[in-house]
Amino acid sequence: MSTTATTTGPTTTTVPTETVTAADGTTYAYRRFGSSTDGVPLLFLMHFRGNLDNWDPALIDPIAARREVILVDNAGVGASTGIVPSTVAQMATDLLAFTDALGIRRFDLFGFSLGGFVAQDIALLRPWAVRSLVLAGTGPAGAPTMHGWREDIERESRHDVPTAESLLYIFFAHTDTSRARGVDFLRRLGARTEDRDAPTTPAVRDAQYDAVLAWGVPDLTKLERLTAIRQPTLVLQGDDDLMIRTPGSHTLVGLIPDARLHVFPDAAHASIFQYPDEAAAVVEEFLSAATAA
């Protein structure tokens, strides 16, 4: 399985940042590029403390070679205005205001980490709008091991100014092979030299971690929500995620009626950035099959 198509237009590192003001009064920063044959874009939802510049070009560009993609900063994040929500539910509501402002009635969703929490809520709130769902490095509300992160991961994720070393520690397995791929990933993140997004702040960190904690409060009754996600769903995960524990992905696949799981070896939270070519190919294969059904 390989990705052979090339993007001839704008790429992750060259596409201009645009803005749109939604009915909620928030001006959302986003990047939209690629091509679509059916008018249904793939909307990417970012991880904890991430902004538009934190998407890996090696993952996004092969996907954009075949379909239209949209990267977006939620309210209060990066160049978007407004207040950062402290609940996943409000993040989902905000992003629906964003899609409404763009006039998008139908879309596919790719949610990574915290973005995967939000993607689940959007799929439940507006099932008629979400055609298919990709959940990467994420987990279900109320499930075991979901309430906060282990002490070392929380420590490294909550520095006022994130460092390359802390990102490597959180995102990649603590092996030489995984770490080496992590260093490559960090180099790719620096490829965009103009029109970079505004960095996220400690206020973003604090509000988003409140949302993470609220999502994970133990409550097994919340697992029943997953049975209402009827969209074809692809779950991507590393075999030893230190941030959002890997068993949560098995729970997602076990309870979402039309779900499949792909696990990357020797990988932790950012398996999709450790294996970007393979992840892009798996996503494209899944979306092509799901949308053809």
Could you characterize the architecture of this molecule?
It is globular and about 40 Å long. Strand 7 (233-238), helix 8 (247-255) and strand 8 form a beta-alpha-beta unit. An eight-stranded mixed sheet has the order 1-2-4-3-5-6-7-8, with helices on both faces. Helix 2 crosses helix 3 (114-125). It is 37% helix and 15% strand. It is of the alpha/beta class and 293 residues long. It has a single domain (18-292), classed as Rossmann fold. It has helices at 57-64, 88-102, 114-125, 151-157, 164-171, 176-189, 202-216, 247-255, 271-274, 276-292; strands at 18-21, 27-33, 42-45, 69-72, 107-112, 130-136, 233-238, 259-264. Keywords: Hydrolase. It comes from Curtobacterium citreum. InterPro entries: AB_hydrolase, AB_hydrolase_1, AB_hydrolase_fold. Pfam families: Abhydrolase_1.
The CATH homologous superfamily is named Alpha/Beta hydrolase fold, catalytic domain
* Gyration radius, in Å: 17 Å
The chain-level structural class is alpha/beta
First CA to last CA: what distance?
Answer: 21 Å
Mean pLDDT over the full residue set: 95
Q: What order do the strands of the largest sheet run in, or round the barrel if closed?
A: 1-2-4-3-5-6-7-8
Main sheet characteristics: 8 strands, mixed
CATH topology-level name: Rossmann fold
Uncertain stretches of 5 or more adjacent residues: 1-7
Percent range of helical residues: 25-40%
Strand count:
8
CATH class placement: Alpha Beta
The CATH architecture name reads 3-Layer(aba) Sandwich
Dominant shape: globular
Helix and strand element order = EEEHEHEHEHHHHEHEHH
Please count the helical segments: 10
Overall structural domain count: 1
Organism: Curtobacterium citreum
Pfam families: Abhydrolase_1
Keywords: Hydrolase
Protein name: Alpha/beta hydrolase
